Amino acid sequence: MERLSAPLHILILSDGKAGHENQSLGLAEAMGRRVAVELHLVRLEMERNPIVRMMEALAASKKFPIPDYVIGAGHGTHLTLLLISRILGARSIVLMKPGLPMSWFDWCVAPEHDFKNIPNNSRFILSKGALNRVVPFAGERSEKWFLIGGPSKIHGFDEAGLISQIREQVRDGTWQVADSRRTPIDFLKRLENEIPNLTIFPHQDTGPGWLAEKLSSAVEVWVTEDSVSMVYEALTGGAKVGVFEMPRLKPDARVIRGLDKLKEDGYLMGNDARKMERLAEADRCAGMILG
Question: What domains does the chain contain, in order, with CATH numbers?
Answer without folding.
Answer: 8-127 (3.40.50.2300), 143-264 (3.40.50.2000)
